[in-house]
Amino acid sequence: KGRTGYGAHIGSRGSSNHAAKFTEADIPIIRAAVAAGEARRSVAHRYGVWPPAIGDIISGKTWAHVRDDDA
Q1: Confidence at 68, pLDDT banded by 50, 70, 90
Q2: Which residue, 22, 52, 63, 68, could crosslink 26 as a Cys pair with Cβ 3.0–4.6 Å?
Q3: Cα four-point dihedral sign 36, 37, 38, 39
Q4: What is the pLDDT of residue 15?
């Protein structure tokens, strides 16, 4: 107990992470665009990322700490 195991994440979250491609403000915009029917590929192209990155946001695999009403 108290130890981090394989795959545990310790470090910066969200846009504080040095490798972040999005900001917290981008996430609700991305979710709304996809919910409105815009293709994930189109959203991904706009942000310069691969479509699976958008899918991970939509599914909550990434950026789950950002709620749509946070923006």
Answers
A1: confident
A2: 22
A3: positive
A4: 84
Measure the N-to-C terminal CA separation of the chain; round to a whole number of Å: 36
**Total-model pTM:** 0.78
Tokens at 30, concatenated: 């991305």
Cβ 43 vs Cβ 25: under 8 Å: no
Q: CA nearest 38: which of 15, 58, 10, 67?
A: 58
* Helix (H), strand (E), coil (C) string for 26-46: HHHHHHHHHHCCCCHHHHHHH
